[in-house]
Specification:
Rossmann fold; four-stranded antiparallel beta sheet; globular; alpha+beta; 35% strand; 648 residues; 15% helix; 10 helices; Neuraminidase
Length: 648
């Protein structure tokens, strides 16, 4: 008779649990899936690979499921337009065109040939390209950095596919352009445009122009949009009608221009759009003349659906994914990146005739026993002014361990970047890294986040550094009051804008007991004066116009109030970061050092705003875990390289 396995759990303090979700697991053969293009029967996508130093590779899959990398090292398909990029490649009839990160030139990759440049050398960047086959050219956004001392110039340009002449400017005069779309007959072009101080999610305009035989723009007119209406993803239908997403009713819903009038295709309190931080975003596509496949988010969950344009009826498509992005539809297929709490982000294809789905590529080849995965609970909680805020709560989960009686777990509160962005319920191994070691995690969609309508998105206007902190504090307090977290071990962490929320909370509130800043903003004045063009007026809406509101900038900058910092902090910083220069983190480190508070600083050569290299991603997570173990006095279940913590 076989002896039963001893299923008794080990008793160990929260935070000290040993977990199979290691940093090696997180980065080993893991990738970040990006843009998707369908070209006839072939599917193309980009992969950012930490194990190749963060190189972005274009992959092609044919009908027989054969996958092949199309660009060899050292080519890296990544554009720096708006600094955040996106829209880095396009494909037509098997020929690939992509922006190369090193020189920002566009390269053409013919089948069986090496990539060759079709744009000149110089300080020029390109993104969001489409092919005008009739005129043998590529139409795209160009960002011109050649004139030092003045702001870069953004235009829509055309580029000869053979590289025989310089780019021709098609549309100019405004601060920004995106989403060029060629009409089905090739005689019209539409695009999005906006001007400072707006960001594209604040308000922009949709324009349509006639294309002359020589390719220049003739008469053009505004179709939709304003400084108070945000347009997202304009598209031509198969029969030449204009479709787009607008938040004119308070939610990013789908509209069309029919017989000169704008009409709502689907009206609901849900978001079909996303904040356009990067180019190439897509949430819908045409399966046929009368059918649309779309994705939308409602109450924090993404859904896939079919819209019958003749009746206006919408029907959900059942899939096991709660997050959907980069949806493309063509040839009876829908392809997107999707994930759920138990499924990693993957490239997924759906056969629209059978509604069967299959995973074409996963962001990780490694699987995790569900016994180590924490299921996120979507919560809403009361915050200031009798309003609600939202978040995802991950309780500690590890099938091998339990805590001592009456012990409550330390809580890590995470603020997402942006701040105009949102968190996701898809499987995050970095979050499970914490929860499987005995930490509770609260991922907060504070006021200003997307996915809850324009009113919620605008809640952060002029109140960045107030509303986001209130919501993080109130979310943590909500869990403490319900016995889900230890009030004496509350941690806040975040990167970029989330890093600003982290540093502000640790400076202006005496609530959290420790924090971790990943390239966090601490000097709002510096950000307003030194940041890149795309974000150079972003703070006008979040704080107020600079320098008119300089006093407020100073009041809300942690770097100006280092005397109020009263908790230990660990800082992580890329030394090539142009968005948040290392000097900001280093100034706060010096202040904490002087005050005698525990502080650690880890910098990474070659990293910019966000870490892409495998070894740096690993080091940061392990160092953060070590830091908390020393601050809160628990032993680690894993062997971790020590961190130099000053004043401890």
């Amino acid at each position: 008779m076989k002896r039963k396995k001893n299923l008794k759990k080990k008793v160990a303090p929260f935070g000290s649990w040993k977990s199979p979700i290691t940093t090696d697991l997180i980065v080993k053969k893991s990738i970040q899936l990006g843009e998707i293009i369908i070209d006839h029967k072939d599917i193309y996508w980009s992969e950012s690979r930490p194990y190749e130093g963060g190189r972005n590779v274009i992959v092609r899959m044919r009908v027989d499921k054969e996958k092949i990398d199309l660009i060899p090292p050292p080519f890296n398909a990544r554009t720096r337009v708006h600094e955040y990029g996106g829209g880095s490649f396009t494909v037509k009839d098997g020929t690939l065109y992509f922006s190369n990160f090193e020189d920002q030139r566009i390269y053409r990759k013919l089948p069986g040939k090496n990539p060759e440049p079709i744009t000149p050398e110089g300080n020029l960047r390109y993104a969001d390209g489409i092919i005008d086959k009739r005129r043998k050219r590529l139409i795209c956004v160009r960002e011109d950095h050649r004139n030092k001392g003045i702001s870069p110039i953004n235009t829509l340009v055309s580029i000869d596919l053979e590289g025989n002449n310089n780019a021709k400017v098609l549309v100019s005069g405004n601060d920004f352009y995106s989403s060029p779309r060629l009409g089905p007959k090739g005689n019209q072009l539409m695009w999005l445009t906006w001007n400072h101080p707006n960001m594209p999610w604040d308000g922009n305009e949709l324009w349509v122009g006639e294309l002359k035989d020589d390719g220049s723009i003739g008469k053009s007119k505004k179709v939709a949009g304003s400084i108070n209406e945000s347009i997202f993803q304009p598209e031509w239908s198969c029969d030449g009608e204009i479709y787009f997403i607008s938040d004119r009713n308070g939610w990013w819903n789908l509209y069309r221009l029919k017989e000169g009038k704008i009409e709502n295709v689907v009206k609901m309190k849900a978001e079909f759009g996303k904040p356009q931080w990067v180019f190439g975003l897509s949430t819908y596509g045409f399966d046929s003349e009368g059918n649309i496949i779309c994705s939308y988010t409602k109450e924090g969950k993404w859904n896939l659906a079919h819209i019958d344009l003749s009746s206006g009826d919408m029907e959900k498509i059942k899939i096991p994914y709660s997050y959907i992005s980069l949806l493309k539809v063509e040839g009876g297929r829908a392809v997107f990146t999707g994930g759920s709490w138990s499924r990693p982000m993957s490239l997924v294809k759906i056969d629209l005739s059978t509604l069967n789905y299959e995973v074409l590529q996963s962001s990780t080849k490694l699987s995790v026993d569900p016994g180590y995965l924490s299921f996120p609970e979507a919560i809403s909680f009361p915050t200031e002014e009798n309003k609600k805020a939202y978040g995802l709560h991950y309780p500690p989960k590890n099938k091998d361990y339990t805590s001592p009686p009456k012990e409550l777990p330390p809580l890590i509160v995470t603020g997402h970047g942006g701040p105009t962005s949102s968190t996701s319920s898809t499987l995050s191994l970095p979050i499970q890294f914490w929860s499987s070691r005995g930490f509770a995690v609260l991922d907060v969609n504070y006021g200003g986040s997307t996915g809850y309508g324009r009113e919620y998105r605008k809640r952060l206007n002029h109140k960045w550094g107030i509303v986001d902190i209130d919501d993080c504090v109130n979310g943590a307090r909500y869990l403490v009051e319900r016995g889900k977290a230890d009030k004496d071990r509350l941690i806040i962490r975040g990167g970029s804008a989330g890093g600003y929320t982290t540093l502000s909370a640790l400076t202006f509130r005496n609530f959290f007991k420790a924090g971790a800043s990943y390239y966090g903003i601490s000097d709002l004045e510096s950000l307003a004066k030194e940041t890149h063009k795309f974000e150079s007026h972003y703070l006008d809406g979040l704080i107020g116009p600079y320098p008119d509101k300089r006093k407020i900038y100073q009041e809300r900058s942690p770097i100006k109030h280092t005397n109020q910092l009263s908790s230990p902090v660990i800082f992580f910083q890329g030394l090539e970061d142009k968005i948040v220069p290392p000097a900001q983190s280093e100034s706060l480190v010096a202040a904490l050092r002087k005050k005698g508070l525990p502080v650690a600083y880890i910098s990474f050569k070659g990293e910019q705003h966000g870490f892409r290299r495998e070894e740096n991603i690993k080091r940061a997570l392990e160092a953060e875990l070590y830091f908390y173990s020393r601050i809160f006095g628990f032993k680690l279940g894993d062997r971790v390289k020590p961190v130099d913590i000053e004043n401890l």
